[in-house]
């Protein structure tokens, strides 16, 4: 049972490691009819979110008139947005801000929506003005917290959890005491 | 310590539950228990006890509620829903003569109920759809049985069910493509009537069966010459009578064809040339004479003909006719022994005639004030002991959709059955009769002389009311001293100082708008028919909004482009746009205009319907749900004089997913405190973004529910949770307010705590959003006064995202149509209101009960209990009967709940609508700002007076003593 669980966890871990995904984020000024342009490519893995990285980033060249931009995943072949799109101010890409790209993905890693938020760079603290990426994985729904299950013996009696013996409980204390007694023994004068 | 904390806990919990007290029932709440508009074929008088002459009035209304009404006062004796959902008419209800049960059928099920108490006798479920239900009055045994006609897939099935057990006695099955229509019996046989042929021209096919075995005896067809195109074209009358008949009119309404069951062929009768509608009335009893009445309606009035059937040869002969009357009349049949009486209930006249002769047996003239406009009626005629005197009572459905009892020409009672089937509701403040502030403002804007004259005139006008005011002083003084503390006493439609008097405007699916006064036990102030609907068409309301001002205007918009404006105080129709064939309104947006909110009708692709200029176009983002698979945000961009639509953002769902609900917060959602003080004196700051909605998305492929909080300005998904193993066929309901949202659904899933246990049941999940995971930290935005969903963040931190804390509970029964109470300032706690369809009640769950911060697996610390009122978490949430705000009232078929704040902070007004209308006041934190009824003003005044008397009496004594002491000679 335990072995099987361990094995499956291991398998899942290997699978997850073997499955980093990438997402192409596009950008389009709202008021114009220009085609969406690629903005960034993000590589992510739903099981190790620390590994999320911006593979490629191209600072958008936005027309002067554009004040709002649309961001999302786009399929240039079918000319359709293939994820939820969001809107952001063009100022998010201006100087002094580092664009934070946010991907909301479901548990399988499918992108639900993409967003971008510019965050002011503290020039005194860091030299890293580059874009950052973060992935928000759809959380598992909260389940009711049940009490510990009641374990019944084959006779149908409630099985009391075996009380640990003194030695099982406090062996580490005895070990420390012993260690102290052996090593220290007080300063010899 | 433990004992202490437990008792504290109990103390805390008991204060949470603000139960409804017995003396508040009927005072704070009201309930319209309704049946729906009674259907003519399922409404009748019936004697529930064999040896008792008293009869009850039974009906099955068009929303699927059936039951018994006391004919003397119109009170409900018992009531049941025929299906778990609101029906669109249909269903069957029959009562056997001299038996104490009634039989009902709808959909797959047939059931029998005790006629007196409404208790269930038996219940049976079958495949297919029930087409007819009839009582078999004559059987080979002493009991009476039930005949049910079902249509299965290509099979016509007739079952005879045991009257007292509900078991199958015999079954008749026939494989054919016919449409089963009706079943009927006479003394000899059972007849199954079905339509045979194609929709262009059906013939009537009649199969006669043996009563004892259900074996086929004979079948024959009756040609209709293309006059019958569907089941609705055949009138079938006199089931169970000695000579049941089938009748149908030709398309030009020039002649009526009648076939007597059991005979061959049909007989034709000419109809009057101005006939626009025809109906046939006949007795339903086997001992009654085989007479029937043909009711011919013309545009101006109506006339009738009475025919007799010769039982020996099946020949029909015309006996007499009732002359044309220029009034709206309803005919009804009543039989006593062999005698058959026809009652003609008109607006200004009620007459009884015997089926034998045209002589009028009795005549009454109802008062004009009754304003009867009978559409159809059922009657009970009683011959008074001694001979020639008659009494009649008729339960008539009027064209105002009221159910009225007319007893000997006098209106006895009236039930507002048209109020059932409400589909939309809006709260309206009663406009103030005279707003002093407005008058003063007006005076300030005119020149000094005219303002002065205006003012003097105003004062003189005010003086007129001075004597009345003087006269009212004693009574008001008496009331304020002797009367109980609580509640407003004023009657009449005006604002009260507590804000309890409001108008709720309801729109029914039949296209009628009602105004109810919630301060006066939900009295119906007015009812206006605005969108008359065809018989099997329901009004689909897409938006309703109230516009405050000196005249409160309620605007209602329907799905076919119809729109109407009604004065909320009088029900007067201010403007009406009829439905337009080509227009389809998929949603409406409430837009804040210069004079208040108005409705913007939107087509399925999000285009605004109707003219919009650059000045009136709303500037805000409009969010619409396009179909079941997309949520869109768009703006209307004014380009010179053209308004174009610009899509801003979209929320797509996967191909197997669908959006089940978009929960929005109430327009009035004040927040009293931006933080939540925790037990350890730290503060968790609430994530308070007014532009958020909760989107519930269901995935049919994997039965998972995804609950997403979406920023409606940017379209960004702020948080998202996915619940596995959710039943998409059951109700999924969410509500959002302040910084929390609540969802309820049915789920079955394995626990992921490692124990692999299975949880199955109705669940409620509550989620709080905070600015950051750590208390005392306000996240990336810090103390910034402004926040934009679009602009970049000006502090070097990170993108601001809410921190969600969730908890789930298993509840014992489904709760749907979740709503949150609203109070004026948002200081009082909130309650989550929901309808419990299984126990027919409305529950107000206190927010602390479904607080995600309830400690799991440990008792709360005293500090936590004091600061947050937390109780220990338990996975099973029992519905405390004290939290059921509808207490013992049986509220059925609630489709929506609306709440509004009163003027006093403690109280929120709530109305639940659907089949029934239920209204109440809830005080989630107790009525802390109103004196209770137990407050005794007399005692208080007496105490003050006696104290004053004591002081007056003692003061001179004390003074004298003090003076004496000074003058005392020191010893």
From TrEMBL, chain A:
Top-level division of the source organism's lineage: Eukaryota
Keyword vocabulary terms for this entry: Signal
Signal peptide: 1-18
PANTHER family: ER MEMBRANE PROTEIN COMPLEX SUBUNIT 10 (PTHR39219:SF1)
Name used for this protein in its record: Cyclin-dependent protein kinase regulator pho80
Originating species: Hapsidospora chrysogenum (strain ATCC 11550 / CBS 779.69 / DSM 880 / IAM 14645 / JCM 23072 / IMI 49137)
Automatic annotation (TrEMBL), chain B:
Record keywords, A-Z: Endoplasmic reticulum, Glycoprotein, Membrane, Signal, Transmembrane, Transmembrane helix
InterPro entries cross-referenced by the UniProt entry: Beta-prop_EMC1_1st, EMC1, EMC1_C, Quinoprotein_ADH-like_sf, WD40/YVTN_repeat-like_dom_sf
Record flagged with keyword tRNA-binding: no
Domain of life: Eukaryota
GO CC list: EMC complex
Topology relative to the membrane: Single-pass type I membrane protein
Domain ER membrane protein complex subunit 1 C-terminal: 738-967
Subcellular location: Endoplasmic reticulum membrane
GO biological process: protein folding in endoplasmic reticulum
Domain EMC1 first beta-propeller: 19-417
Transmembrane residue ranges: 940-958
Cleavable signal peptide: 1-19
Oligomer and partners: Component of the ER membrane protein complex (EMC).
Entry's family note: Belongs to the EMC1 family.
Protein name, UniProt field: ER membrane protein complex subunit 1
Species whose genome carries this gene: Hapsidospora chrysogenum (strain ATCC 11550 / CBS 779.69 / DSM 880 / IAM 14645 / JCM 23072 / IMI 49137)
